[in-house]
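Table S2 (continued). Query chain:
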Amino acid sequence: MKYIVIGLGNFGLSLAEKLTKLGNEVIGIDNSMAKVEAVKEKISHSIRMDATDEYTMSGLPFKDTDVVIIAIGEDTGANIMATAMVKKLHPNRIISRAITPIHETILEAMDVETIIHPEEESAERWAKKLSLKGMVDSFELSINYSIVEIAIPDKLVGKTIEGAGFRNNYNLVCVSIIKKIAEKNLFGKTKRINKIQGVVTTDTVLESADILVIYGENEDIKKFIKEN
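Corresponding output:
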């Protein structure tokens, strides 16, 4: 089979090497020339490339590739952007690496078929969860912008996305909604799992116990949490 592995850090490099040893053709992509040079004798092909640049990415042989793996782990923003880019260019199977549960939620909303998450939860993310009341999870896309999961405030229950005024009142974008669904495991015990609802519309109604997934500037997010 033919694979493209984007991101040649410890995880991506190890995966690319193992796939190659199993007889597969592997193209390794990274924006670091040092990493590309280090792996060029260990896999089929290695290319220095910015995976968030559509022009350069469009030159890859996606039509002849069975699986594309986005293994970027150091930069979640780049991971999401690269995943979106591959979704646009590659019609076959996509696997993406999730660093945190909220990162996994976003990948699920993007209809990524398979998600892998080798890392443990970070201390920074837990610090945010404990410091800001109502915040369920979060990660930073950059110094100033984040995507966060927030429990729906009581005063917004029953309102639509448009009626809640995320954009007009808070300068925020509601990306999706997570619902807690009851599910029984193999032993018959009921557990609550998160189920992503996909991309919301302006007339989506907010319900009690739902979790908002919102995107915006960190200061605007903090303002929203404090006011609600």
